[in-house]
Amino acid sequence: MEQFIYYLKVSFKGIKRAPLPYALTIFILSVGLGVFFANATFYYQLNSDPMPHKSDKLFFPMMLLAPYTCTDCKPPRVLSYSNIEKLSQSDIPSAKTAMYSAGGYMRLNASQPALPVSIRITQRDFFSMFEVPLLHGTIWPDNNARHEIILSKATAEKLFGRTDVIGEKLLLDDRHLTVTGVLDDWQMLPRLYDANNRNHLSPVEDVYLPLETGYDMNYLSNTQSQTFDQTDYRQLSTQGRTGALHQLQYWVQLDTPAQQQAYQQFMANLVQDEKAAGRHPSEANNQLIPMRNIVNYFGGDSTDIKAFALVTLLFLLVCLFNASHLSLNRYLGNQYEFSLRRALGASRAQLQLQMLADVILMAVFTITGALITAYGGIKLMNQLLPSNRLFSSWDLTLLLSLLGIAFVCSYLVTLYPSLRASFGNLNQQLKE
Amino acid sequence: MITLTNLGKVFRTELIETHALREVNLQVNEGEFAALTGPSGSGKSTLLNILGTLESFDSGDYQLDGKSVKGLSDAALSKLRNEKIGFIFQSFNLIKDFSIYDNIELPLRYRGLNAAARKQRIEQALELVGLHARRDYLPGQLSGGQQQRVAIARAIAGEPRILLADEPTGNLDSLMARQVMELLEQINQQGCTILMVTHDPDQARRAGRNIQIIDGQLHDSTMYDPLAAQSA
C-alpha cells in the first residue's frame, strides 16, 4: 500500500509537470465518454427487459382472423372482441388478459374540476401477469362488468390526498364508480404490454377499469382500432362485441414449451374452424410473439437512439484516439524518467504498476468529468426527445458498467504510451 | 568479479556497420578502481553501458560474479542493476521535481526495502557525501558538484558491489571535480569496485588501473587472457 501511495505521488508529480496536456486529455476523454454514457443510458433502458424472469413466458397471439382476402398479409395488430372470446376458450395459458387503453376525466363530485386520466381497460389476470403490486384493496374477482375501479398510488394521492381509499366513490366521465384497489408504486419500463404504437415508452396508466365495463361505457381505444365491416366504432357498447372492430391487445402466459406448442396448435385449429365456417377467407397466418420480441415485431425499435448510439460510439473512438495521442506525447516527454527508473533497477512490470496508478488517477478524473457531461447530455436529450424521458435514469448495474468502461478507456489511453515509454533505449535516453 | 570474454558490439544502420567493441577480454576484481580512457568514440561509454546492462552485446560473454548475464530476462537484469550496480552519470540524471531524499530513495524503492531501512541507508549515504542538511532541497537548488554528490549518494545507497561512473566530473569545475574524486576514492576504500570513464589523465592516474580503449579494442595495463585463465 505504501508503495502504491508512492506511485500515486509520482503520478501527481507527472501531472504537475505538464498540466495542460493532461487536462486536455481528461477533457477529451470526459466529453467522449460523457456523450457515450448519455446515449448508453437511453439505449440500455429502452432495450432492457422489464421482467427478465418471466418475459419468455408471456406471448401476444396474433391471427389473420378478418373478413377479407389477401395474400402475404400480416395479422392485424389488434384483435376484435369476438376473436378474443374465441381465444379465451382455451385453458392452456396459465393466465390471459385482453385490454386496451383510453382517456377520460375523473373527479370526486360534479363540483370539482375534472382530472385527465389515462385508463387501462383490462381483465383481472393483467395484474398477476405483469406483477402489478397492490397497496390496498383487491383485484376484481372475475372478468365481469362492474362499476369498480383500481387507481394508481399517484392518482389516489392526487384525487383524495391519501392512498387508503377503498370503497370511496368517484366520477369517471361523470359515471359513478367505486374504488376497489390502489396500486403500490409501479413503473414497468419499457411497458412492453402496450408496444403496438410505440406506447411502450410512456408511463403506466393512472386507472384500471374492467374490460366489460369499458365496453359498456363506450370507451374507444385511444391508440389503435380497425374496422373490417360495417361496424360503427363509435357504437362500441352496442356493436363492439359482435362486429369486426379490432382494438384489443391480448396476452397469454405459457409457462412451458409444451404449453406454447399446444397453444399454437389451438390457434391453428381455431383458424381452420373459422375458415371451414367461411368467415375468414385469407391464408392462415398465426403468430405467437414473445414479449421480448414485441417491440421489434411492431417495428417500434428506437431508430433515433440506435443511430445516436452508433454516432456516439464513433465519437468515443475518435476521442480515445486523440486522448491516446496526447497521452503518448506526455509519456514520451517523461521517457527520460522511465529510463532512469529502469537503469536504477525498476523492471517493466514495476513500471506498469506505476502506470496503474496513472490509470486510476485518470479514471477518477475522467469518470467525474464523464458523469457531469452525461448528466448534461441526458438533460439535453430529455428536452429534444421528451418521449424518452422515463428512460434516463441510472441504476446500479448501468452505473457500474459505465464506470468499468471509463476505467478500460483510461487504461487504453495509458497502456500503449506507457509501453512505448518503457521500451526505449536506456542508454540513449539517459544521455538526451 | 567482472569477466568479459571476446565481447563484441556492433551498431548497425541501413547503410553501415560500426564495430564499437571488438573481441574485448577483461577481468575486473573485487575492490579495484579502474579508469576507462580513450579518445571520443572509442567505445568506452559503450563498454560501461554493457557492464551496467543498460545495453546489450552482440557476441562473446559477460559474467558477473561467475554468472553470465546473457539471455537474462528484463526482470532479472533489473534486479541485477538494482542490487549489484550503482550508476553515476555525467549529467547527474536527478529528477528535478523530486527532493534530494526522494532522488536517493529511487533505487531503494524498487529493492522492496521498508521505510525504516530506506531511511537508514539514505541518511548514511547523505552523511558520506556531506549533504545531510540539504535532504529536502530540490536538485536545482544545489551546485553542480553537490548534485553529483547526490547522484553518488543515490548510487551507493543501495550498497552496490560495483560503481559505474561515466565521466562523473565532466560537467564540474576542477575544485568540485577533486571533491568528487576524493569521494569516489573513499567509497573504493570501503570495498566497492569502481569503473570510471574519464578523459582526464590526472583522474585516470589516481585510479589503480588504467584500461585504455582505442577503436573498440582494449589496451589494458593488466590485460586478461582467457586462454591463460582456462589453463590456470
Name the descriptors.
heterodimer, A: 432 residues, alpha+beta, 2 domains, 6-stranded mixed β-barrel, 48% helix, B: 232 residues, alpha/beta, Rossmann fold, 6-stranded mixed β-sheet, 4-stranded antiparallel β-sheet
Describe the fold and architecture.
The complex is a heterodimer of chains A (432) and B (232). Chain A has 14 helices and twelve strands. Chain A is an alpha+beta fold. Chain A folds into two domains: 178 residues, no CATH class; 243 residues, no CATH class. Chain A is elongated. Chain B has 232 residues and is α/β, with parallel strands linked by helices. Chain B contains eight helices and ten strands. In chain B, the strands form two sheets. In chain B, strands 6-7-8-3-9-10 form a six-stranded mixed β-sheet, sandwiched between helices. A four-stranded antiparallel β-sheet of chain B has the order 2-1-4-5, with helices on one face. The radius of gyration of chain B is 18 Å and the shape is globular. The mean pLDDT of chain B is 87. Chains A and B meet through helix 1, helix 11, helix 12 and helix 14 of A and helix 2 and helix 3 of B.
